[in-house]
Amino acid sequence: MKGVNKEVYKEPMTSQEATAYIKAIGYPVLILLLSMFSISVFSGFGTRLIAPLTAAMWGVGVIGALVLKSMRKEILKETLAFIGIYQTTLLGWREAIKLVSNVSTEQIMASYNQVISLNQSSALPGYLQTALWATTILVPAGFLGREATRIYRFTKKTDKNKALNQVRGIRP
User: Fold this and answer.
1) Which of 61, 63, 68, 66 is nearest to 83 (CA)?
2) Which one of 4, 19, 147, 151 counts the least CB within 10 Å of its CB?
3) Which of 156, 153, 140 is nearest to 53 (CA)?
4) Cα-Cα end-to-end distance for the chain
């Protein structure tokens, strides 16, 4: 065995393969870091409400990818995109609330050149906080409902041939 020369030929990694690896690892890590940042920025609200809902979205996405093997890539892409947009939207609402809360009625009247009641400037942050609450709860609820429906429909109501035809785009 000493005389046997084992030559192994390896091809160098192409730039497309390297980009695919970077995307496959970097995108989920980026979404995770964005989620952690968002949860820490919202402090108590983030740890009590945003973190469990985000974890539920991650969990349902992983379960969906495990159960629906034919749609694995699509489900993982949708889950990551959904969570990224969700966290970005929450941070956007937070910044909008910060901007609006420091604006007085006189500043609003000057910018719109229109008479505005004194109560309206104090109501703007309340409207935005309501939108933040709605976004915080309704977006994950919609995602969880959609994924649960997809999993239920696939596992309970389809047979193998129907599922394969659905993936191929063939109608029965």
Assistant:
1) 61
2) 4
3) 140
4) 60
Tens of pLDDT, residue by residue over 8-64, are: 667 788 888 888 888 889 999 999 999 999 999 998 988 999 999 999 999 999 999
Please check whether residue 80 is in contact with residue 28, taking contact to mean a CB–CB distance below 8 angstroms: yes
DSSP code at position 98: H
The pLDDT tens digits for 126-135 are 888 999 999 9
Sort residue 12 into left (φ over 0), alpha (ψ -120 to 50) or beta: beta
Q: Are 70 and 157 in contact (CB under 8 A)?
A: no
Question: Rounded CA gap, 19 and 17, in Å?
Answer: 5
What is the pTM for the complete model shown? 0.76
Query: In whole angstroms, what separates CA 127 from the centre of its chain?
Result: 24
Cα 12 from Cα 160, distance rounded (Å): 40
Report the run of H or E that residue 125 belongs to, with start and end: helix 118-157
Tokens of 28: 């989920």
Q: Is 64 exposed, middle or buried (0-12, 13-18, 19+ CB in 10 A)?
A: buried
